[in-house]
Design brief:
The chain is α/β, with parallel strands linked by helices. The chain contains ten helices and eleven strands.
Length: 324
């Protein structure tokens, strides 16, 4: 089995920080030079009230990185689909797909931060329905010769979105509950997880494959990406001491999901490789790592000391490094 590896980018920071485009460009170039296969941008318009979290918009950030890289894939992990106008999103994503040479993977989800829905005039309680509508319209605009019809308040009359992408962006669906897993199996190209332990991933991935079979779809058509924090250090204890505060400052873990800070990969290079192997054995196809505080030395250590210990990584004699 070919397993590939990517990195999350710091377009979203803690309340005490600010994203920096010069740093993001250097980070992206370093990731490509070291053989990572993808970069993943977080997506929020705004987040937090007493302590707002600074964030660069995901697609415009990836467009900038596309101009400074050549081969590395670019993904959103995940874009909040119900608050986006589907026509504008389809055009923006198709343009990024063209300018990047077909490197875009659009990770999408229904969202959870109610303030963003209120600010964009998007009904929060019907976000699941709006998610499905918006995704359906994006597919139509990317692939159909013309689109005609009424979808709620949206009216399309012989709309032709040109140029159409030579290949539409790959779409991964993020989420936790069973109805979302059914969407993955029937509407998407695969699943994108957030801070899942290997055993939790395996349980939900099994449900996705079952839903695909029930819908008459070959589960082999589906892929997946697991987003996992990582801290490489001299010992498990030292890494564990560092990773907790980082995750508490930057990330939330919804109570209704299996996402947990305990998913963090941490310890010596050998310990990190052992923990990542559990995810490979659970069926993960691509791992998007969130390096501890996005530090350059963490990125270098992951590439030089952890990935060579893993089957399917760049530089491994077991398999080739590219999966597209």
């Amino acid at each position: 089995m070919t397993v590939t590896y990517g990195l999350a980018i710091e377009n979203f920071t803690s309340a005490e920080g600010n994203p920096n485009f010069t740093g993001l460009i250097d980070y992206a170039r370093t990731a490509e030079r070291l053989g990572f296969r993808s970069l993943w941008a977080w997506d929020h318009l705004f987040l937090g009230s007493k302590q707002p979290f600074p964030c660069f918009e995901a697609l415009s950030t990836l467009t900038t990185l596309a101009a400074h890289t050549s081969d590395i894939e670019l993904g959103t992990g995940v874009l909040v689909l119900p608050i986006r106008d589907p026509a504008l999103l389809a055009k923006t994503a198709a343009t990024l797909q063209a300018t990047s040479g077909g490197r875009l993977t659009l990770g999408v989800a229904a969202g959870w931060y109610e303030r963003e829905f209120a600010a964009t005039g998007s009904p929060f309680r019907s976000r699941g329905k709006r998610f499905e509508r918006n995704l359906d319209l994006c597919y139509r605009l990317w692939t159909d010769d013309e689109v005609t019809g009424e979808w709620d308040e949206l009216s399309f009359r012989r709309v032709r979105m040109l140029p159409r992408p030579s290949a539409r962006p790959k779409v991964l669906i993020g989420g936790y509950v069973d109805r979302v897993l059914r969407r993955v199996a029937t509407m998407g190209d695969g699943w994108l997880t957030y801070f899942y332990r290997a055993d939790a991933f395996a349980r939900s991935w099994k449900r996705i494959t079952e839903h695909a079979e029930d819908a008459g779809r070959d589960p082999a058509e589906l892929t997946n990406v697991a987003q996992l924090p990582i801290c490489v250090d001299s010992s498990f204890e030292e890494a564990d001491r560092k990773v907790g505060p980082f995750l508490a400052e930057y990330f939330d873990n919804p109570e209704w999901s299996d996402a947990t800070p305990e998913s963090a990969i941490r310890g010596t290079p050998e310990q990190c490789a052992e923990q990542l192997t559990e995810h490979i054995e659970a069926g993960v196809a691509h791992i998007a790592l969130v390096p501890h505080r996005y530090l350059p030395d963490q990125v270098e250590r992951i590439a030089a000391e952890v990935l060579p210990l893993l089957p399917g990584a760049a530089g491994s004699p077991v398999t080739e490094a590219v999966a597209r």
